[in-house]
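REQUEST FORM: STRUCTURE PREDICTION
Request ID: SP-0412
Submitted by: Lab K.M.
Chain count: 1
Length (residues): 272
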Amino acid sequence: MILKEEENILFEIYTRELFEKTLVQLLGWAELVVEKSLNQPALPHAIVVLNASSNRIDPARWDVDKATRRAMKDVQSAMKNNPDLLRYVQHWKRRGKEITEIEQLLSLYYSSFKVLCIPERGRQQLISQQVEKLYKEIEKAYRLSQEQKWSERMLLSSTELQPYISYAFDWFSERLDQPFDFVAASFATNPIPPYFGGNIIQLARKVMEVNHWTADKKLMGFTLFDGISQLIGSCIMLDSARKEHIGIILVLPLIRCFLTAFRVAIIHTPKI
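STATUS: Completed
RESULT:
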């Protein structure tokens, strides 16, 4: 059984023997999320439930943190023997990151990873306690996910999320080999005004008039745009804030979105 809400994944399995196979599945899903999207606000959280665990296991394993550490230890040897896990290890090695522990590998794809044991029949009170722990872990993962998205300026309501879902369907129906960019989708939903380049030209003209510059003045273009660059940058940031473009506003991604307007202004400024 799989329950997915926001960026939280709950995976229930009935035997410990399936745990290794479950890890491969979880890594496969997370790999698609990481490789097929840009500017994603947060990595998902995962909770693996070892359901119907034997009542005779070490009592310490009813603790979530201890159960998680023990489960990681149980599958550590798979890092060298399982070809599917080895593929991920080699993938990150080519990127310059040496992976030696299963926890290291999971941390590259998940914000948190927890293992929780629920006993088999006969211990109703313990079952109730473990289920309560499960709900607390789900609530904790949900809260952390919300906080992370809020800090990245990408916390969306159901109404705000709908345009991005539609944009994602259109995106992947045309280009399966290119990752989905949340920030680009934000600008597609709230596009840059078509007259923005013209406004830059008007600003440049006014600065030229005040300084009595002419189009043939040496290095006029460089000096002009160097002088007004901070003002233009402030206007861009203000425009993005007003339109509530999602994501941390980084300089390079933002500049790429406004490149057309910049080109229009630079090409036409010497002629004004």
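NOTES: Strands lie at 2-5, 8-13, 37-38, 45-53, 112-119, 180-181.
Reviewed by: T.R.
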